Amino acid sequence: MAKAKIRVFLVDDHPLVRESLTSLINQQDDMEVCGQAEDMADGLKRIGSLAPDVAIIDISLKESSGLELVKALKLRFPATQLVVLSMHDEKLYAERCLRAGARAYVMKRESTRRIISAIREVAQGKLFLSDGMATELAQKFVGGKQSGGSPLEDLSDRELEVFNLLGRGLGTRQVAESLNVSIKTVQAYCARIKQKMQLGSATELLREAVRWQEQQSGM
Which end of the chain is more exposed for a tag (fewer CB within 10 A), N or C? Predict the structure, then answer.
């Protein structure tokens, strides 16, 4: 009897990325794409009905955060192993994703071979990280938090999400709608971000968020 294939589900708001990943995965003898979605709501619904072995999640979705989707999937469907695919620096997001329930963090600029390897590893219940990230996490575990990192590392998951959305051009009201919170709540997040990043005004915050977003896009 032939061995069952690894069933993979994709959540990414870029159709070309989903198409490329589908083609890549379906070329493998031991795996297949069983479904896909472009946002958190559809992803939760379809993963719940399809029960894939592995879900690949983009960290930056249009109307929500991939990190929040990881947390929701881990809570509702723990049998599905989660791979986060992202353009963002792993030093900022990888540990957050692991804490949220992901088993792998792969940057989009990496080779397609690593994406395939990540799927196979997490399907067996293993973790998959770059050598550099694995070493950094091990050092942090042994010696505690290292100094000299980015100020963004001090932001909570929610604060980082707000910072990310501001950098993508959303106004305060749009951020509030995206996160399903009040404008006052977003303003409170912004105040804490400014304090942690030692920024003096909303204009400085916006400028820094846009600059960071541009850096991430150019990585």
Answer: N
Which residue type occupies 27?
Q
Distance CA 71, CA 54 (A): 15
Per-residue pLDDT tens for 52-101? 999 999 988 876 778 889 999 999 999 999 999 888 777 778 888 898 99
Number of domains the chain contains: 2
| Residue 1: inside a domain | no
Q: Within this chain, do residues 171 and 203 fall inside the same structural domain, yes or no?
A: yes
pLDDT for position 149: 62
Residues 113 and 180 in one domain: no
Cβ-based neighbours of 156, under 8 Å, separated by 6 or more: none
Residue that has been written with the tokens 């150019």 in this structure: 218
Query: Pairing mode, if any, of strands 54-58 and 81-86?
Result: parallel
Return the residue matching tokens 């001090």: 154
3-state secondary structure the chain: CCCCCEEEEEECCCHHHHHHHHHHHHCCCCEEEEEEECCHHHHHHHHHHHCCCEEEEECECCCCEHHHHHHHHHHHCCCCEEEEEECCCHHHHHHHHHHHCCCEEEECCCCHHHHHHHHHHHHCCCCECCHHHHHHHHHHHHHCCCCCCCHHHHCCHHHHHHHHHHHCCCCHHHHHHHHCCCHHHHHHHHHHHHHHHCCCCHHHHHHHHHHHHHHHHCC
Domain range enclosing 41:
6-141
